[in-house]
Design brief:
Shape: elongated
Radius of gyration: 38 Å
Number of strands: 0
Oligomer: single chain
Length: about 280
């Protein structure tokens, strides 16, 4: 498989197959067939010129479009995790700060339940209403605290206590996930890749359709449908776009930003100063 921007160097009579096409019957295959119909309908083009359209222009355009979609999906995925996680972590930290208060409230409730008096059993009334029932003094008994009492007192607060108890651990784990996703996004620069690939793909697509319609810079060849005469200009335009794509990728995406280089240079100088001391 060839690298980024590497040209095809061999033209043969084998059936045309793009290495960058997706699954059989997918949208990319439909797009390839539609473009092949357009290529075959262009008059006055030689077989090598049609091969250039297939193996160079279309191949590069589909590859750049695919890379653009992949980079966009990865960029959005990482950014969503970073944004949502950054919003949830402070809430978890605030919830965890309520743990001491929640534990003290549970202890107070258990103590109150343990010292609460047990109501006396009712005295049965005599069958004769004229007889005055005797006064029975029932001593107040204290129920000793048991595990059953503590469970029965706070059943509705168990879920809240569970959330408060585990929120610090959840905040720590989520903060690490946010830090990792932010570092991955900064290292691979998926946002810059997406915009770079998208720009190059659209430039190639625009140049190709101008050539197919003999419009724009090719409008002077519209009379008589002189595609063969306009083809050298089209090739020159395509190669300039591809060359600009490779140079832009190396200078903007694959290299460090000036601020990063200055930061790393400062850290390196500081470490050297420490070693000399």
């Amino acid at each position: 498989m060839r690298g980024h921007g590497e040209p095809h160097t061999q033209l043969d009579s084998k059936p045309f197959q793009l290495e960058r096409s997706t699954k059989k019957g997918g949208r990319s295959e439909q797009v390839i067939r539609q473009y092949e119909e357009i290529f075959n309908a262009l008059p006055n083009l030689t077989p090598p010129q049609r091969q250039y359209l297939k193996l160079r222009w279309l191949d590069q355009m589909l590859w750049l479009s695919k890379r653009s979609r992949e980079s966009q999906n990865r960029y959005y995925f990482l950014r969503i995790i970073t944004i949502v996680g950054s919003a949830i972590v402070p809430a978890l930290v605030s919830l965890g700060s309520l743990l001491p208060l929640a534990q003290s409230n549970i202890v107070v409730m258990k103590d109150n339940a343990a010292t609460s008096p047990v109501p006396a059993s009712p005295v049965p009334l005599p069958a004769d209403p004229s007889v005055v029932p005797p006064v029975v003094e029932v001593p107040v008994s204290v129920v000793p605290p048991t595990e059953t009492t503590s469970v029965d007192v706070v059943p509705k607060r168990g879920v809240l206590l569970f959330l408060i108890t585990w929120s610090p651990y959840a905040a720590f784990i989520l903060s690490q996930i946010v830090a990792v996703t932010a570092a991955i996004d900064q290292f691979f620069k998926y946002g810059d890749r997406w915009r770079h690939y998208r720009r190059s793909a659209e430039l190639l697509k625009s140049s190709g359709w101008q050539f197919f319609q003999l419009s724009g810079m090719y409008s002077s060849y519209a009379q008589g449908e002189r595609y063969k005469e306009a083809f050298p200009m089209f090739v020159n335009q395509v190669e300039e776009i591809i060359q600009s794509d490779v140079e832009g990728y190396i200078s903007q995406v694959a290299t460090q930003k000036p601020g990063d280089r200055n930061k790393y240079a400062k850290l390196r100088d500081d470490s050297r100063d420490d070693e000399e001391r």
